[in-house]
Amino acid sequence: MKKLLYISVNSKPEEDSTSKTVARKLIDKIIKYEDSEVDVEEFDVYKEHIPTLTHEYFCGRNTLCNEEDYEELNHRARNEIDRIKVLANQFKEADIYVVASPMWSLFFPAPFKQYLDCVIQNGITIDISERKCKGLLDDKERKFYFVQSSGGDIPVLFKGMLDHSSCYLKDIVKFMGIDKYKEILVDGTGFTKEERRDAIEAAEDEIDAMFKIGKAIDKACEDSKEFMDKMKGYHKKLKKEDGSFTYRAKEDKDEEEPKEKESFTEEEEQEHKAEENNKENESVIKEEEKNHEEVVENDYPVDDTKKEPEEELTDEKMQSYERMESDKVLNEESAKEY
Ligand SMILES: Cc1cc2nc3c(=O)[nH]c(=O)nc-3n(C[C@H](O)[C@H](O)[C@H](O)COP(=O)(O)O)c2cc1C
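Output (structure tokens, whole complex):
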């Protein structure tokens, strides 16, 4: 069972509100396509009590009072702190979030910001320690959908200037640790009934496409997984000589390798032994050839560049060489005589 928290940021009845009409269609689709049951809990920021945060609820930065300070507070303040904790925990429990909101003065209406300030609490949805902030909502898969309607058309290029709500929301949702964020922007609701109807239809088409494509992708993933499982069953992974892998159908492999015979005739056994001997001899020869190649490869020619530089021959040196040569001849001759 998944919990869907539907946060309505609109005091209008659903049939008069563009954002709420589109959000309802989205919720119906989520219920239809989610792979488990979905329990929808509605939270209307205009009907529910959302505390206005005042400084006495906090001790230190962003942290609600500890027990000691809490006891010092008056009854009303303690109730407000309790309420903040209830809202933050309710938010934390959800798996799917749908927010329906109009654009007001380039942002979403203020009660939703007041709500977010309540649910973004240290120790519940975020962790502030050692001068670092970290979202705690990455503990399970969560999806966040933001449906916003606006009177004007908002070209993508001017989104940063004309739509501060979706830019902000995307960041704050990510900050809390929710990685799946999707926005459905119902812009151009204009001034007439027709304009509003067209804007709703366009948004509903987008939702249809979103789920169809999403389902098609899921199906493709399932099909490929099934295919791979089949491949694993029918194919054998073989290591090639160069270290890479190849796949061979198991049937082929089975044909290549007939079952071993249990008994052999004497003749067959002798043949088998001869074959084994041949194989052994071949491998010895190959090994020797390999060693020989290695030796040849290692027998590098002498590097001439590393030779001692030749001595320069001066007259003096020539004379001493000549003297040495004549002494040598004399020595050899006297040696012969002797
Ligand atoms: C107080 C107020 C402020 C608005 N500000 C903007 C705005 O900044 N940009 C815009 O495009 N539309 C603005 N609109 C128009 C609404 O966003 C538009 O009518 C929207 O479709 C209302 O959605 P809803 O039917 O869900 O309430 C504003 C409307 C009101 C009442």
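The chain is about 50% helix and 15% strand.
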